[in-house]
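Exercise 3.2. Students should predict the tertiary structure of the chain below and write it as structure tokens, then compare their answer with the key that follows.

Predict this chain's 3D structure.
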Amino acid sequence: MKTEREKMIAGEFYNASDPELVQASRRAHLLCQRLNATTEEEIAARRDIFQELFATGGDSVWCEPPFYCDYGDNISIGAGVFFNFDCVILDPAPVTIGDRTMFGPAVQIYTASHPMDWRLRAKGKEFAKPVSIGSDVWVGGAVVFSPGVTVGDRTVIGAGSVVTRDIPDDVFAAGNPCRVIRELE
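Answer key:
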């Protein structure tokens, strides 16, 4: 029989109030609290926290706090990633971010979702789908990524967009829902 954590990672219905998941989330929240209390001069301390928080990466991340996430250990980031102020990653499913990707302020990445059937919601059931964002991507401020989306390499996502479906490599995409506006050269 699978644990709630195994169900969560597999994209199956799980119960987020499971004690193991609550403990893992608490760990991430405490690390985020430490991160968000750092000063501008404590860049090395921020990177140490990210290395402890993330599954992979963190040694070259640049982040302007505050930053928040659910678990942290489901987040894998490449080299030279930049998070501006107020970014949120809900990561019950894996979140993968490529090298040199830049996030504007108030970007939100959601892998968590809830069933449409109210009876399942009433039982505390949730599910999650992975989000993947390529390398050399620029994400404008206040962009929201929905569960299960993939964004290709070298793409630009316009500010305020809601990404509800996959976006290919080398395009400028924007809107709600986000759609390809044009190809980039």
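Discussion points: The chain has a mean pLDDT of 96. The longest strand covers residues 179-183.
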